[in-house]
Structure formats: structure tokens, C-alpha cells
Amino acid sequence: MTTVPPATLAGQDLANILSSLQRASGLSLRALATRTGLSAGHLSRMMSGERFPSWKHVAALARACGADPEVLRRVWETSSARRDSQARPTSLASALRFLHLRAGSPTPWAIAITSGNQLDQDRITALLDGTATGDWEEIQRLVQLLDGEPTYFHPLWEAEIRSQPVTPQPAVVKSTAQEETSTASTRVEDLLIAFRDALGGTSRAPAYSPVRRCLATPIHPAR
Predict the structure, then answer these.
(1) 50, 115, 172, 180: which has the fewest C-beta neighbours closer than 10 Å?
(2) pLDDT at residue 125 in the model
């Protein structure tokens, strides 16, 4: 049975221990993938520290390497507690960059190819830089491509959307000519109502249009 030296338990990172177990077992990643039911890529990320494994996967890897899983439990619990105590990104862009770094910093081109060109390079760069927020479908797709958990990123995306300023709608401004016409019409109507008795009037103000112009009396030609 493969054993883990006590000194290693005291000072090594979990990922390094798992990598050491794999080398000590003499098994390839493909052979370990067959024994554990995990993909070779997933095992590689566990051993490089790019992905923090669940206890179930650590125990499966330990058994596949011929080690006692209980020997690794304390290491996993300590690493898990230290990981949970670390400050997590509070903005969408910083969380995406952290995830991108943890995934090994793949180029935007590589991510675009993996997405089947559903995301283009410029869009991926803008999302990682924080110069674009994107819709949730884009964020979810990028997180999945970087092997992240979408449910962690959704509240960050919602907060980003809420923090964006609302563009005010332009006010409708009347033209100067319209304002002058409206003011003149109102003033004439008020005068007609105030002086209707002096004008011989009726209870109603006479129909009058302020824009109506008096036509000159036609001049007939001399005969």
C-alpha cells in the first residue's frame, strides 16, 4: 500500500499530495481515470490545483493509488477550511478573472473555439476585462467553459445589472414658435371672456381665431 509521509501531511498542499500519490502509484492519468470514473482532464486539474476536488473524488483517487483515504481526510479538511476563509471576488469581472486564472488562463481564441464560436474572442476579452457585462446566457456559457459554477456567478451578474446607470429619456421641448402661438391664443381667449359684456355679448365667447387674418376688401377695376 502506498503511504503518505508525515512530513508531507504537515506542509504540502493538497494538490501536490495528490500529484505525489499519482507518481508513487506508477499509474498514468488514463489508468487512474478508468479506476476512478473521472476524466483524465479532471484529474489533471485536481493535481495541478486548478480545481479543488470534493472529498468523494479525493477518496476515489486515494483508493485508486493504493492509499488509505482516511490519511488524506485531514489534509482535505484543512485545505477546504483555508479555501473557504479566503476572500472571494465581490464583482462579476473580478470573479470571472479569478475563474479564468484558475482554469490556467486559456487564451480568448481557445475559449472561443471550445464554445463552438458561440462566443467570439473580442466578446470574451470584454467580459474578462469588465468593459462589457453581457447577458446571462453569455456569462453562464463562459463560466461553464472555464469549469465554474453558474449559480455562484448569477447574483454577481444581477448586482452588476442593477448598478448600471439608467439612461434618461430626452425631454420633449416645444419650439419657440409653438410656445408663442399657444400663449397668444390663451391671452386672446381670456380677454374675450373678460370683456364679453362690453362687446355686446353672449354668454359664450365669440368664435375667434388669433391666427385668422382680415382679408382686404377687393378692389374692382374701373369701368
Answers:
(1) 172
(2) 92
Cell triple for residue 87? 476572500
- Taken in order 28, 30, 31, 36, the sign of the CA dihedral is positive
Query: What integer pLDDT is reported at residue 205 of this predicted model?
Result: 46
Neighbours of 27 (CB within 10 A): 17
Residue whose C-alpha is closest to residue 103's, from 63, 159, 51: 51
Q: What is the pLDDT of residue 77?
A: 85
Counting other chains too, the contacts that 107-113 makes at CB distance below 8 Å and 24 or more residues apart are: 111/142, 111/145, 111/146
**Which pLDDT score is estimated for 174?**
52
User: Hey, what's the cell of 164?
Assistant: 448600471
Residues 51, 3: Cα–Cα separation, whole Å: 24
27, three cell numbers: 499509474
**Residue 37: what pLDDT?**
92
Residues in the chain: 223
Instruction: Give ∠ CA 49-147-163 in degrees, rounded to 5.
Output: 110
Alpha helices in the chain (DSSP H): 6-11, 14-25, 29-36, 40-48, 55-64, 69-85, 92-102, 108-114, 121-129, 136-145, 150-163, 176-194
Alpha-carbon gap, residue 63 to 172, rounded angstroms: 74
Query: Which residue stretches of the chain have pLDDT < 70?
Result: 1-12, 83-89, 166-223
pTM of the model: 0.43
Nearest to residue 23, comparing CAs of 42, 36, 45, 4? Answer: 4
The whole-angstrom separation of Cα 131 and Cα 93 is 9
